[in-house]
Amino acid sequence: MREVIELNKKVSLMAIVILAVIILSTPLVSAQVWNNDKNNDKFESYYVEHENLPATDLEIDYKPNEENPNVYVLSWGDNIGDYNITIGGAKHYYRDVDFAYEQDCVWTAIGDPIVVGGFLMGSKSNIWRIEYKFDFSAFEGGIEGTLEMLFVSNNDKISIRSLRGTGDLQNVQILATAVYGVHSGIVIGWPNIPGATD
Fold first, then answer.
1. Of the candidates 94, 178, 185, which has an alpha carbon nearest to the alpha carbon of residue 138?
2. How far from the centroid of its chain's Cα atoms is residue 93's Cα?
3. Mean pLDDT value of segment 40-45
4. Helices marked H in the chain — which ranges?
5. Do 59 and 135 lie in a common domain?
6. What tens digit of pLDDT does each residue of 107-138 get?
7. Which residues pair with 71 in a beta bridge?
8. Around 121, how many Cα atoms within 13 Å sit in the side-chain half-sphere?
9. What share of the chain is helix, strand, coil (3-state, %, to 5)?
10. What sign for the dihedral angle of Cα 113, 66, 130, 40?
11. Residue 198: inside a domain
12. 55 and 3, same structural domain?
């Protein structure tokens, strides 16, 4: 009887060791080499310059709540003029040449918002959320696909990141920040396809 128990222990121990080896080697067996000729597998600089225009379709809603009676929510559409993207210092893309651009903006202001000539100047406390999209499929001969982005500013703490991409831009990841209409950061997975003017 004792021999059977010792044999069962040895068989159980061997089964556990074999199972552990199989489980631990699975990621190594299933790993694949980066296999997309269009996308870089290295980090590159991401740099954007754009022109802010007055918000012509500005909507202001007064939204008091229990915590603060002076809350305003402002929303508007596209108020961006020229928009230039530079990747890695060498690839240049321009709005209405390489891509179409669209955005939806929401600004939550605590305290009376200051708006001068359609430009939003500030308030006591600011939270900006801008969702925007680059549509490179709108122009033939270059990058195909779209890239959705998110800009969030909470009292001047700014974060910009990519949300999702399609086509040639499906593997793109961007992290950036902004100062006065200039975005700078890093990107990985940007396609090896030059802009129309490169």
1. 94
2. 17
3. 84
4. 2-30
5. yes
6. 888 877 878 777 777 777 788 889 999 999 99
7. 110
8. 7
9. 20, 50, 35
10. positive
11. no
12. no
